[in-house]
Amino acid sequence: QVQVVESGGGLVQAGGSLRLSCAASGNTFSGKTMGWYRQAPGKEHLFVARISSGDSTNYADSVKGRFTISRDNAKNTVYLQMNSLKPEDTAVYYCNTVPPLINWGQGTQVTVSS
Fold first, then answer.
1. How many CB atoms lie within 10 A of CB 7?
2. DSSP 8-state assignment for residue 103
3. Mean pLDDT computed over 1-14
4. What is the pLDDT of residues 11-46, one digit of tens each?
5. Which among 1, 19, 3, 29 is positioned nearest to 93, based on CA atoms?
6. How would you label 73-93 residue by residue, b for 16+ Cβ within 10 Å and e otherwise?
7. 3-state secondary structure (DSSP) of residue 8
8. Which helix (H) or strand (E) holds 38?
9. Cα–Cα distance measured from residue 45 to residue 68, given in angstroms and rounded to the nearest whole number
């Protein structure tokens, strides 16, 4: 059983960078495939990136080449390095298992200005 708290969002100019963190509880974290999702106003949660227990990764086409997901099992933390940010990346970002099996948390707001 995994519970998560997201952090690291903020306001950034287009072309800038942010690093999001997802702090997870539970000692089964290292065996879970974890991912990031985002939700823009009026939209559903959309898959952004995932990382398996074996560190294989997968990305949505919209972020591939710009975002990098990683994990630190010793810290029970998943990260999302976001580079070359675009206004269309503006959303609330959430961490969850892949597929999403736990309750959605508060997320962290990312706002990219033009």
1. 16
2. -
3. 92
4. 999 999 999 999 998 766 778 899 999 999 899 999
5. 19
6. eeebbbbbebeebeeebbbbb
7. coil
8. strand 34-39
9. 19
In this structure, the chain runs to a length of 114
Cα separations in angstroms, 41 against 2, 38, 46, 111: 26, 10, 12, 12
Which amino acid, residue 55?
Answer: D
Residue 23 sits at the vertex; the CA angle it makes with 22 and 29, to the nearest 5 degrees, is 100
Tokens linked to 18 = 């942010």
Residue 47's H or E segment, with its range, is strand 46-51
DSSP state of 29: G
Q: How confident is the model at residue 3 (pLDDT cuts 50, 70, 90)?
A: confident
Nearest by Cα to 68 from 54, 91, 48, 46: 48
